[in-house]
Write a structure and sequence with these properties.
Blueprint (H helix, E strand, L loop, with lengths): L10 E2 L3 E4 L6 H8 L2 H4 L10 H13 L7 E7 L5 E11 L4 E8 L8 H15 L8 E7 L3 H9 L3 E12 L2 E11 H9 L1
Helix pairs in contact: 1-3
Length: 192
Amino acid sequence: MQIPPKNFPIIDLGDVVLREKCDEDVADFFSYYSDPEVNKYILCEIPRELEEARRELNYWRNVFYQNDGIYFAIADKQTNKLIGSIGLTSYNAYQGRIEISYDLAHQYWNRGIMTKAIQAVTKYAFKEFYYGRVNRVEAFVSTANLPSKNLLMKCGFVLEGILRQHRYHRGAYVDVYSFSLLKSDFANLTSN
């Protein structure tokens, strides 16, 4: 039996749209992602040149086709310019959990964009991803990243504690906040 091709979803959030990343996004991705204000707390390697950015973008683009998650481009609806990313990765089908992560160009901070994006992607996780089998969305945030901590709490995520030296970042192990949003939490948030 042949498996039908997967269609990458598009989620309209008003001023921005969540869509699939494409080759035309590489320069915009590299530009905002290499900004020290943006990548200060990103707990992974930062591309140092355009070709590294292309490989990084393609890696995240392909998680959808490898059934490991989904990683959206956050694009300005008027110009289609990539201004950020948000996604679900490291899907564990048996445990029903997946990790959310996100980033946004500095000039778009404090506009409510990421709040709407997190809400939309968690809804997608619980209702659509892998036939709605996700029970837990997790997030791990550097303990120094207070804006992201506050953002997740605003979106209904529960702070579970601190994982000591959980991630390796810029030559040192760093502590992270561990957050979760359960399917039952999401149902309570959306029923009010």
